[in-house]
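Reopening this one. Same input as before:
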Amino acid sequence: MVESPAGRELVVGGRRLLNFCSNDYLGLAADPRVTAAFKAGADRWGVGSGASHLVSGHTAAHAELELALAELTGRPRALLFGSGYAANVGTISTLLGERDHVFEDRLNHASLLDGGWLSGAGFEWYAHADTVDLAGRLEAHRSSPRRKLIVSDGTFSMDGDLCPLEPLIALAKRHGAWLMIDDAHGIGVHGAQGCGVVDPARHDCTDVPVLVGTLGKAFGTAGAFVAGSEALVEMLVQRARHYIYTTAMPAALAAATLESLRIARAEEWRRTRLAEHVVRFRQGAAELGLQLLPSRTPIQPLVIGASGPTLELGAALEARGVLVGVIRAPTVPAGTARLRITFSALHQPADVDQLLAALSETARP
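Same output, byte for byte:
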């Protein structure tokens, strides 16, 4: 049980540990400016929205946040959801029916997979980031007049690699398919001002018609959004059950996220520091002979294999004052249990060195 706010350190069971298992990539979850905005929002709006968006729960704070997210992503509109899971399942199930086709990367997040299955559409996995495999599956349905949707994470949360965005865009256009990218772990982290993997200076709604982002990772608050064309967002407003039939997020949370978004866009040093930590860690891990997965993101997985040794290694690191994520099946495929090491802009170089020292004592081949 965690007994402290999110940050570079966590108090767990009365012990203060270096935190390398959070998705708070920019270090904004407990930023005093964001906290102050939340308090001011609660003073103005109260702590609950009181209704769904379509009844009376949609306030000026929600509307302002949606405009800001649309501007960040370079899209006509954005629509808030209570969670990334709701955004993904709600969007896919709105867009597709039982006679349509959905093609999903095998390592997609569970919410994307569930959305595809629950939609009732013909569901096909393609091998992870394998556009040749995807092309063959699309070709098999070339004659189908029904809607085809390609779905991929932007940054894969357990491997830390990026989707092959340009080939995905080309394939979608070639086969008359829509492309949906969930940039949960990329928005705020990658691109100019944290615009994400889908750069609005290069890619518009004709390239990536459906873009999803979360607010509970780099932006440090909670909730999610879908950004796209006027027609897409209006369709979701009218038909997405996960939007229509749920209470809107508190307006105070929207106010806090607006401040977080402002900070994330303005303070480029956060993304610069993240990149420096990744380089420092990967260089140090190579010197120790550790084989990391090929990731240039703040997600740095160290695959161990069996669950038992991975759990033991996680406990050994915790005993040395370092907390990392220990990930096992079914979150990752059986036999690929791993340490999911993540970095924050709040970490210091000495923190990275402490992590490497602990790994040298516990994980060195």
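So the earlier flakiness isn't reproducible anymore. For the record, The longest strand covers residues 299-305.
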